[in-house]
Amino acid sequence: MDRRHERLGTKARVRAHILHAHLSWAAKRWPDVTATLRPHLDAAALALVERPPQGDADTILFSELVRIDRALAAAADGDAEAIFHALGVHSAEHNLAKIYERYAPTQAHEFFQAMSTVHRAFQDFGKSRYERLGERSGRIRITRYSEFSPVFCVSGRGYYEEALRMMRVPGPVVVREVACHCAGDEACVFEMEW
After folding, report:
1. Which of 141, 144, 168 is nearest to 156 (CA)?
2. Within 13 Å of residue 76, how many CA atoms lie on the same side as its CB?
3. Of 115, 120, 126, 174, nearest to 149 (Cα)?
4. Which of 109, 118, 146, 180 is packed most tightly, with the most Cβ within 10 A?
């Protein structure tokens, strides 16, 4: 992850649901998440942790999510990449549990096709497209990211892996990021097999 770059700014926004999922992950580990993260965050980011937006349509800056995720990894004092991956797994569990009820294990392609459409509901930047590669394989191509971070890409891989597991696909589940904005590529591309 250290050879990859990021571009963070003050325009790209994500739904607060993602922050809620990541804070839920933290609450399972620490009795006082705010106190645990205080040494790792500035006042603005700490205020988001103390009082995350609650409305269904509320958003936060993408850059703030990345800063909070880095603080979570620092507080966990472990392998940062493993923490970001775990945050993605938990985000899928937290935000998509009810959606999976509509999809059978044989409908993974339909699920990811729908996710391409729903992409804009979770973030206001980038465009996602799903392509079926085989009976049990596919590719997600994300383009037009005005802001990007390897933190989000690693989390995304965990999210897609858990999405497949929650659908109870036959497996084994394998998700690889084969291209990335953070590496200078024109898209983030995730290839999946199950």
Report:
1. 141
2. 22
3. 126
4. 180
Main-chain dihedrals φ then ψ at residue 118, nearest 5 degrees = -80, -15
Say if residue 105 is preceded by a cis peptide, omega within 30 of 0.
no
Predicted TM-score (pTM) of the model is 0.91
- What digits encode the pLDDT tens for the residues 75-118? 998 899 999 999 999 999 987 776 656 666 678 899 899 887 77
Residues 42, 53: Cα–Cα separation, whole Å: 18
Residue 101: CB atoms within 10 A of its CB come to 8
Place of tokens 């659908």: 167
What percent of the chain is predicted at pLDDT more than 70? 94
**DSSP helix/strand/coil, 116:** helix
Task: Determine the Cα–Cα distance for residues 96 and 61; give it in Å rounded to an integer.
Answer: 21
Compute the distance between CA of residue 25 and CA of residue 27 in angstroms, rounded to an integer: 6
Q: Which runs of consecutive H residues, i.e. helices, occur in the chain?
A: 16-27, 33-37, 43-50, 62-76, 80-100, 108-122, 150-166
Contact 25, 162 (CB under 8 A): no
Check if the beta carbon of residue 157 is closer than 8 Å to that of residue 188: no
The answer to whether the CB of 113 falls within 8 A of the CB of 130 is: yes
